[in-house]
Every structure is written in C-alpha cells, then in structure tokens.
Amino acid sequence: MRTVLQALAMAAIAVAVPSLADSQNREDVVREIMDSGEYAISIDKMKPLGGGIRNLTSDYYIRIGNDSLYSCLPYAGVAYNIPYGGGEGLVFDAPVSGYDKVEKDDKTIVTVKVRNSEDSYTYTITVFSNGNASVAVQPVNRQFISFSGSLLAE
To answer: Model-level pTM?
Structure first.
C-alpha cells in the first residue's frame, strides 16, 4: 500500500513540475511582450458602472503600438456631453499623450492618456503575470467603465 501511495505522490510531482515550468515560461513571455511596448488585449467582459458584468461575444480589443492607442470597445453608461448621434464612443485611434508603466509583484500597470475629437480618456491597463488583463477607462464626458480580457501575443 505504501508503495502505491509513493508512486502516486511521485506521479503528482512529475505532473506538477511541467505546469510550474509552463507557468514560469508564461510569465517570461508576458514580461517580454509588456517590455516591448507594443501589445494587444482581447476583451471578453464589460463592467459598466451602473450595471452588472456582461459577457461579450464579438471581437473587442485595445492595442498599443507606434505611440498610438487603437481602441475597439463597446460602451454602456451615461454620456454627459457627446456629439449628436452618439459619436465614436470607445472606437477610435489616437496618439498617446501620456504613458506610464509600473511593475509590481505579479502585475504590470500601464496608464495611457489619449485625446480624440470628442473626449479625453485615461486607460489604466493591468496585466497579470498569467496573461489576464483588466482595462479601466475614465473618459471626461462619459461614465467610467471597465473591461477584462487577456493579453495577445502578436
């Protein structure tokens, strides 16, 4: 009986070691992508300020690269001052006017400031070492909204 338990324990350790190696490899890949300064985040959940979490079925993303932010995100919330017809919402390309990156324990927090013809935005992007990400968007003329998704390797 003891031999069977020892064999099971050794098998569990053998299975756990590759997953730890994969985890370390994933952390290295995430760090490398974030250090490059050019990355994309695929969005799968939306969290409006006045409502619950909504799963998204279409392809939404944000991309940072070439000193620009490419935003293709849905918006649900209160808009205080927008053009007639609703405007662009969070679907636009704009040059980055401010970029700050802080690395903490198991995450990287990036703050990006952009401005387009309708509004000024602050995007706070948190990317965790496992590749999961959250994006908080604070517009001036609309309510705050947040998203979650995962880092894409381009």
So the answer is: 0.82
